[in-house]
Amino acid sequence: MVACIGRGRGQLSPVVVLASFLLLSLAAHAQSATQPLGGPHGVVKSANGELLEGIMVQLIAQKNAIRTTVYSNADGRYEFPMLEPGTYTLRIARPREFHPFVREKLELNGPAELADITLTRVTNAALLPALPEIAAQMTGSEWLLSLSGTGEEKRLLTVNCNWCHSYQQIFRNRYDEHGWAQIVNRMTKGAGSPLINMNPRGRFNDEDTAKLVKWLATVRGPDSKDPPFVALPRPQGRQTRVVITEYELPRLELATHDVWGDSKGNIWYSPHRSSYIGRLDPRTGAVMEYRVPAVDAGVLPGTHWIYVDKNDIVWGSENWAHSIWRFDPKTEEFTRVRWKVPEPVNSPMGRQLRA
Ligand code: HEC
């Protein structure tokens, strides 16, 4: 029933390595302007000596893959919190208009002053070239600013395609009009995020659907050219005072939905599409997984909400199987309570399907 995922480098299974993009961002602490964080620090500048503000500087611990990211301030200075001594990778998390920067195998022990990070711009032009690595770093707003089209066309996308996944997931694809029509049909009539049950009534009318499909096939058709990219300004001032800590989770396709803390400082998370729930120890990055008992045949596994009560009992809701379970970490036993709802299984519960 219990899978313990080794975090030591030698123990990384291929699954863990594959899952390295699944990062759970849990802690973002506001950092006061005056209070030093006490960890490794340094300066980011451009090749012509300009100090760069709002650059995401990241250290990845080799031991447990915990990623810590800080931003450079108006003086180009960045400072990490105190980190465990060890071997780290230093990189710029989202270089965007600059060429990537990575320094491997940095031995860190204490509040070291790191060598200056010098970044070289990809171009001196105002718009960024349509290179695949730049396209992959664009935010949804930057994509929308960069693509041609009217406000009306773009609004159809923002109101209908805005809450299940990023625009990146949309714009990295290319289809002709027929292909986009199929995609939009599934996205707007698939009832709930598994897109399994179809609702004959879509979210918007046929005329608007046709407009959106036509626009998508124009800007993201098989032969449409990638646009040069408009990059929005980087964070400035107070926006740069943040520390982001990310932890690797051991599985692909987890689709982590919710998190809740227990009395011992652990973080419990619920995956939307997997039969495992997990307990992360943010002090070490270690993850312990527990297998939720199988759901009925033909029903998607996965937990929606998660909650830890004052006795450290974990509760979760199963959105597709329509039940609630209780998990006692001491005995590692799950108890399931079925929830009677009018919706068919594999549709979100608590919200009637419109026929
Ligand atoms: C109800 C939630 C939901 C909404 C709203 C939604 N999508 Fe999706 N979309 C999904 C899911 C779920 C997938 C499958 C993702 C997966 O499993 O990898 C997906 C996948 C996609 C993909 C394929 C991505 C890939 O690279 O494989 C495209 C393209 C896409 N959506 C476009 C759209 C468009 C256009 C809209 C607006 C009309 C939209 N989506 C709205 C849930 C949604």
List strands and helices in order, with pairings.
Blueprint (H helix, E strand, L loop, with lengths): L1 E4 L8 H5 L4 E8 L7 E9 L9 E6 L5 E5 L5 E5 L4 E7 L9 E7 L8 E3 L12 H4 L4 H7 L4 H10 L6 H5 L5 H13 L16 H14 L22 E7 L7 E6 L5 E5 L4 E6 L4 E6 L14 E3 L5 E5 L4 E6 L4 E6 L17
Parallel strand pairs: 3-9
Antiparallel strand pairs: 1-14, 2-10, 3-6, 4-5, 4-7, 5-10, 7-8, 11-12, 12-13, 13-14, 15-16, 16-17, 17-18
Helix pairs in contact: 4-7, 6-7
Explained architecture:
With 355 residues, the chain is α+β, with helices and mostly antiparallel strands. It has three domains: 23-124 and 238-246, Sandwich (Immunoglobulin-like), CATH 2.60.40; 132-219, no CATH class; 250-338, Beta Barrel (Thrombin, subunit H). Helix content is 16%, strand content 29%. It is built from seven helices and 18 strands. The strands form four sheets. It has a six-stranded antiparallel β-sheet, with no helix packed on it. A five-stranded antiparallel β-sheet has the order 1-14-13-12-11, with no helix packed on it. Bound molecules: heme C.
